[in-house]
């Protein structure tokens, strides 16, 4: 078994869930392309999972607990599990990643979890 997995996504794929394809064990990740003016057809919230939205292309709007915020490429939005949410693409469409993980589960991050190795990678 390999210690890594790679998946190549089609840039125009409407949606791709990476959990099963990459055998993720700590989070769920999806890549999403919403055409111009299209919205997710329902408002939802979560029982335990927070979400991180990374906007990579286009623009749109986010309904968050009754408030509407604008979205643009480069925006990063964390959404608490209890927050009611719905996302809508703007005139040029919207491409984004959504990363979902159990709220409060991160025990270490790069600064405290990373360990330097002696292996040389690039000359």
Overall description:
The protein is mainly beta. The chain is 7% helix and 44% strand. It has helices spanning 19-22, 110-113, and strands at residues 15-17, 28-34, 49-64, 67-72, 76-79, 85-102. The chain is globular, with a radius of gyration of 17 Å. The mean pLDDT is 93.
SSE order? EHEEEEEH
Described by strand count, sense and barrel closure, the largest sheet is: 6 strands, antiparallel
Helices and strands: which structural class?
Answer: mainly beta
Q: Roughly what is the average pLDDT, rounded to an integer?
A: 93
Number of helices: 2
End-to-end CA span: 27 Å
Strand content: 35-45%
Low-confidence stretches: none
Question: What is the approximate shape?
Answer: globular
User: How many beta strands in the DSSP annotation?
Assistant: 6
The percentage helix is under 10%
Radius of gyration: 17 Å
Quick take:
This protein is 7% helix and 44% strand. It is mainly beta.
Question: Which SSEs are present, and which pair or pack?
Answer:
Blueprint: E1 15-17, H1 19-22, E2 28-34, E3 49-64, E4 67-72, E5 76-79, E6 85-102, H2 110-113
Antiparallel strand pairs: 1-2, 2-6, 3-4, 3-5, 3-6
């Amino acid at each position: 078994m390999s210690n890594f997995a790679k998946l190549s996504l089609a840039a125009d794929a409407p949606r791709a869930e990476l959990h099963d394809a990459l055998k993720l064990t700590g989070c769920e990740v999806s890549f999403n392309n919403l055409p111009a003016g299209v919205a997710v057809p329902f408002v939802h919230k979560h029982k335990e999972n927070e979400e991180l939205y990374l906007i990579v292309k286009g623009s749109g709007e986010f309904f968050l607990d009754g408030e509407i915020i604008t979205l643009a490429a480069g925006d990063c939005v964390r959404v608490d599990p209890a927050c009611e949410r719905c996302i809508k693409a703007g005139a040029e469409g919207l491409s984004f990643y959504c990363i979902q993980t159990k709220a409060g589960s991160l025990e270490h991050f790069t600064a405290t979890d990373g360990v330097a190795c002696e292996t040389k990678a690039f000359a």
